[in-house]
């Protein structure tokens, strides 16, 4: 059965925790066959509880569907031989050991590519393979070191981490992009290559306007709570009962907002005539908007402003976010062998994503994979 655009590709997944497994799950959803290689103790996220479902970490479950698991001990001669055989047969190998950590096992790119020159070998690290090679690659460290935490939280409060391991996820996506680009190169030339991504570089790229403010404008951004440095309004504003996200991303949206709030006089005020002026004069503009918003509850404003073309929305918990996606017909939840999961966010007009295999138990497919690897070698 044809599953998707990557159908027929074999990925040897030597990664664990989040960035690598997230990348390989995305690729598996697109049709690639992924063999997850784990140590005998298993991927660390198997033990990251609570929460859990039927005794299994939901952290692990969320990023490991559509894979088959084999547990290999690189210290055991036969297991190491099988690991090398898997790398020799794979189209793609992905790993997030410390840079150079697989060299002593003969599973580094230089060694593996001699036997499998068409291999696309992707390495994920925290701080690159140069001077930062020995630094541990934890998302929280990179949130701190990159500057993200300095941007998160109240202006007069302490720095905060983001609510998710945002740079692990982004680095996983960058790894997937790099792998797909290398596949295109291989299709044209027949040659594989080494793809490297690291959390800090991904973080600096993902900080977009903030890193651009520094490198292009000489400005070091700072914490502003929920405010935006270059737009206003673009933040939660209080209503009669709770906060509502209100956005005026351009002058037209601001005019619509003023009309719905019955504040036509603001349109003639030079302090608020342009986005730059509104941003500079937010301290004067904010209370004028809030005084009107407090007259009605958030849900009423949401319906009214949305109908008028003003971007706004509720501040949901995660359950509300899933419910909204369901309400909008996005079908966010799929069931894989009776396990509810969030579906792959990509849709295609000519191919499809798949959600066939539940996250595997440790070494669940070990016997099957071992038998296959012991067949006639390449």
From TrEMBL:
Top-level taxonomic group: Bacteria
GO molecular function, one term: CoA-transferase activity
Annotated keywords: Transferase
InterPro entries on file: CoA-transferase_III_domain (IPR050483), CoA-Trfase_fam_III (IPR003673), CoA-Trfase_III_dom3_sf (IPR044855), CoA-Trfase_III_dom_1_sf (IPR023606)
Protein name per UniProt: Crotonobetainyl-CoA:carnitine CoA-transferase CaiB
Originating species: Kibdelosporangium aridum
């Amino acid at each position: 059965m044809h599953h998707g655009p990557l159908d027929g590709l074999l990925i040897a997944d030597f990664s664990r925790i989040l960035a690598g497994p997230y990348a390989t799950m995305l690729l598996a959803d697109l049709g690639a066959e992924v063999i997850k290689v784990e140590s005998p103790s298993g991927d660390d996220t198997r033990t990251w509880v609570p929460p859990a479902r039927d005794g299994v970490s939901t952290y692990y479950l969320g990023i490991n569907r559509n894979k088959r698991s084999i547990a290999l001990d690189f210290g055991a001669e036969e297991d190491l031989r099988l690991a090398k055989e898997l790398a020799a047969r794979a189209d793609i190998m992905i790993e997030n050991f410390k840079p150079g950590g697989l060299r002593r096992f003969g599973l580094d790119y230089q060694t593996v590519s001699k036997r499998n020159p068409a291999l696309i070998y992707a390495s994920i690290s925290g701080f690159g393979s140069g001077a930062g090679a020995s630094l541990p690659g934890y998302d929280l460290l990179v949130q701190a070191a990159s500057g993200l935490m300095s941007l998160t939280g109240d202006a007069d409060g302490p720095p905060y981490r983001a609510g998710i391991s945002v740079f692990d996820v982004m680095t996983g996506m960058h790894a997937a992009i790099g792998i797909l680009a290398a596949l295109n190169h291989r299709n044209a030339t027949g040659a594989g290559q080494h793809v490297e991504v690291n959390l800090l570089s991904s973080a600096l790229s993902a900080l977009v306007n903030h890193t651009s403010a520094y490198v292009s404008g000489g400005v070091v951004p700072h914490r502003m709570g929920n405010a935006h440095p270059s737009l206003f309004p673009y933040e939660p504003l209080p209503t009669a009962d709770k906060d509502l996200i209100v956005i005026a991303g351009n002058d037209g949206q601001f005019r619509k907002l003023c009309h719905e709030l019955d504040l036509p006089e603001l349109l003639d005020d030079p302090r608020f005539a342009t986005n730059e002026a509104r941003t500079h004069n937010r301290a004067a503009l904010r209370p004028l908007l809030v005084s009107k918003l407090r007259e009605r509850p958030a849900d009423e404003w949401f319906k009214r402003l949305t109908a008028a073309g003003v971007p706004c929305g509720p501040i949901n918990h995660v359950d509300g976010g899933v419910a909204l996606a369901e309400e909008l017909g996005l079908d966010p939840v799929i069931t894989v062998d009776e396990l509810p999961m969030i579906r792959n966010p990509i849709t295609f007009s000519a191919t499809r994503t798949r959600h066939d295999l539940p996250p595997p138990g440790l070494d669940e497919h070990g016997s099957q994979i071992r038998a296959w690897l012991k067949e006639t070698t390449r």
